[in-house]
Amino acid sequence: MTESVFEADSIRVCYGESEVVGKLSLDAKQNEIVALMGLNGMGKTTVMKALIGLLPLRAGRLLLGGKDLTRAAPFERVANGLAYVPQGRMVFPTLTVEENIVSGLPASARGVPAEIYEFFPVLKEMRKRRAGNLSGGQQQQLAIGRALASNPRVLLLDEPTEGIQPSIIKEIAVQLKRIRDEKGLTILVSEQVLSFALAVADRVAVMVRGALVHQSPRADLEEASLGKLLAI
Ligand SMILES: Nc1ncnc2c1ncn2[C@@H]1O[C@H](COP(=O)(O)OP(=O)(O)OP(=O)(O)O)[C@@H](O)[C@H]1O
Ligand SMILES: [Mg+2]
Predict the structure, then answer these.
(1) Is the C-alpha dihedral spanning 172, 175, 180, 183 positive or negative?
(2) pTM to 2 decimals?
(3) How far away, in angstroms, is 44 Cα from ligand 1 center?
(4) Looking at ligand 1, which atom is closest to the CA of residue 43?
(5) Would you state the pLDDT for residue 100?
(6) What distance in Å separates the CA atoms of residue 28 and residue 186, rounded to the nearest whole number?
(7) Which of 14, 42, 196 for mutating ligand 1's site (highest number of atoms within 8 Å of CB)?
(8) Which of 26, 28, 139, 148 has its CA at 20 to 30 Å from residue 64's CA atom?
(9) What pLDDT is stored for residue 2 in this prediction?
């Protein structure tokens, strides 16, 4: 069995006294794309924020390449190969596309790595434009490009399709798989759009009220059965 690059073990996350994620375990292997599916309010963003270190873990462990990052600050997690694209993209609207990407580069880097513009040619075309003037889909591509600037091993993507038109959703699915193939990347992506998750994922995990109720390889799932699992 291939070893997990990324492993969250029995994590528990709370807001004050209210537990939103309880004893959730999730792992991903090198080159694997795992979709974390769940309807609104089920806890996807809470999991993502806890994994990157924006919310503390009340219990459980986080391992990256076997290294324990449970207590590491977000910047240390990034330095160890984790990258995060937040829900709503959060690009800097008044900075240019290029400046946004540069903001994700480590201090030692010189200029935008060519591969980012190869993966997303539209970003090269628009590199001098302010990010706030890009479409939602282009901003999502920018947010992914910026996250890739730190050359991560594991990419966390929180609802990348939210508010994006269907043709661009398909394009993003193709781009993510290409990036995974070329970089040997591991991707954990939270989603509600069934078609996108089924197009992109190797494995699907379904979350209901802060707990996983199902996990299986993509090949074992059909859209209708996944839809039913989400609504449990
Ligand atoms: N800062 C907060 N303080 C208290 N409760 C919160 C906070 N943020 C989220 N919650 C609650 O935690 C639960 C999970 O929210 P979360 O944002 O993780 O869900 P989600 O699956 O990402 O939903 P969506 O698909 O709408 O983005 C919800 O019940 C939400 O109301
Ligand atoms: Mg969310």
Answers:
(1) negative
(2) 0.94
(3) 8
(4) 18
(5) 95
(6) 7
(7) 42
(8) 139
(9) 61
